[in-house]
Give the backbone structure.
Amino acid sequence: MTYRSRFTLTALTLVAASAFAPVAQASGFQLREQSASAQGNGFAGVSATGSDISVAFFNPALLTQFSGWQFSGGITQVAAKAEFSDGVATRFDGSVISGATSHKNIAPAGLVPNLTMMYSVSDDLKLGFGINAPFGLPTEYDSTWAGRYHALKTDLKVIDLAPTIAYRFNTQWSMGLSAVARRSEATLSNAVDFGLLAGLTPGSQDGKATVTGKTWSYGFRAGLTFQPTDALRFGLAYQGSQKPKVKGTVDFEYPSTLTGAALATVQARGFKDGAASAEVTLPATYSLGFNYDVSPAFSIQGEIARSTWSSFEELIVKFEDNTAPQATQTVTQEHWKNTTFLSLGFIWKTSDAWTLKAGLSHDDGAVTDAYRTPRIPDNNRTWVSMGVGYNFSKATRVDVAYSHLFIPDQQVNLHTASVSTDENFTRGNLSGKFKSEINILGVSLSHKF
């Protein structure tokens, strides 16, 4: 395995991961914020009910709860704060890697848009179309921080296009199905210790490697709703898995002082521009929710969702431009874990115009302590959410929601062996902790024609 192989493997892991199936009920770097109206009560019961048609993202069968021509559009600001501290970075021989051992916020704020449209063919048959951004938000580090060989920039952009059909069989049962076309793009970069690789003084010849990748992938969402009484409704939804093939390129920037035999040495080891591809099985998500109307004005909701992240055990990367016998393909172990999302909330219609919402949620992190990296410092999170809806008329509604996410400190403990075949040999050891929190503000407008 060449040094280039090990770098590209880690980078393309995230390029491939940016093409996930639509599992909006999971952690990792996914974005649940696809509906301001559902965010208000912490996405509780989002598989079983909704204030506007944006909830079709979570369960397409819910379109049957609405009538006529409708659209719902919204935008959500996700303001994440993740700061690194107590860092220790060393090479395989124990020598210290220079650079800052703490870092200010690595997660700039981002905007998440969503748009849903619906046409009622009849009282029972509905057609819809949704545009969503289910993954994204970048992380970025200064080029001189101590962990620069592990991560500098990660930028993921994903857009879903989803035509939907939903049908109500009778007053109790409805079913919906969405076809999903997903466009994913990623840019990731690391610093590279060319001094170490060329046999010179480690840290004396830092360069940079940047990986870019893009792909289209295809999947589906399906859902059922069951209403045994006028007051109680259940919803069951499935987000299908995908196996996307991502094509990417790796580009290297060498320091101007790296010339002659030293430059030839690092290029011979595989550090030269080229192409690579990756294919990985990505998880499915199952969700079950309920809505119970305690009275005409007050209702409670609950939600549980399970994402099969354990299917992301390994990533196989093929190096299309590398003909070295042991560098045409390599495998890395990921060992992500299954995650569970739990939520309980309520909706209170204080008048014909005003609706108040609140919810409490828990969302597991998919990354285990042993495999956490600076690119995805994921961990469990607790949501506290509240929202308000206002009906300007029978046709027009506005929802505003706010959530604060409490996240325990995340530990990073990455280690390297003293053998060149170790995937962290050129990156070194890195330990430290992240202190994180997230504030989310969502706004949406829905209108019925």
